[in-house]
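Let us begin with a simple case.
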Amino acid sequence: MRFLSILLVFVLFLSSIILVSASEMISFVGKFLGEKTYIMVLSGNKTVYVKGKTPEGLKEGDYVEIKGTERTDRDGNTYIWALQIKRLIPRTIDDILKNVKDYLGKKILIYGEFRGWEGGAGPPPVTRSDWVVKDETGGIYVLGAPPFKPIEDKGKKIVVIGVLKISQSNIPYIEPILVEER
């Protein structure tokens, strides 16, 4: 009897692994809004409900990266079953540029100022539309068309979350995932 109990637990464990691996893994970033029944995260302009272990010290307004699978509860509500909830730590541009190898290919968070097509960070690394974000330590290009008006919105306080990459001409830049006004 004991053998059958152990075998049943083992089969249930294996089936849960198969279910998780068969579900599509979702990864996204957003702003932590708070915690009630679910952890609430604002990603873009959509509130996403998440179940999982909240990282210690996480405060409302912090930015997080979440990896998990989509599920539906008994009432038909969709949520993310988080396998990982990671608080993103803000980095200075100077730190990023001095430690490119450490940050290359990783998600980074910058609190800065939108500078549009302002120079000072060298030539645009990938396209002519690339734009600059600056903080008190320096500036770095962000890939793609500016999310704000390049001249009128210069100086706007923003948040940039993206992946650090290096151009063919060896210039570090950020491939944006989330850009929003602070």
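The second case is a distinct protein. As before, the sequence precedes its structure tokens.
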Amino acid sequence: MSRISPPSTGGVCEKIKSPADRVSLGEAETAGADAGNKRPLNARTAPPVESSIEQLVAPAAIERALSIYQQQQHDRSVVMQARKILTQRIYAMVDQGESDQHRLTIGGLTHLKSIERDHAIKSAADSQNKK
């Protein structure tokens, strides 16, 4: 019985016909860069956690808080003002290190309610009725 030993090329099964067919690791990495990628393979990294929170979690928390707020039958202009307030508050919470979507949603709604309690968010229709 004869044993078959694995190839010494690190598991690559293709045969190299000439020295010109041999490619160094650095050349293989930059070949990906030439194919449309701007960075070599070893320079690619996962996006920072803060970036994914700002791009995924915060917008979802804003939309969730806004959908809850809209259930209270507010005027469209009030909802637009609420969106601005929620966006500012939720991104401020993200800047302070909060990453939990539920806490961001609750924190945004709590801030919005405190603003409503202290200073009424006025509707555009209310200001037109007073004229």
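The helical segments are 25-34, 49-70, 76-95, 101-118, 124-129. The radius of gyration is 28 Å.
Keep these points in mind for the review questions at the end of the chapter.
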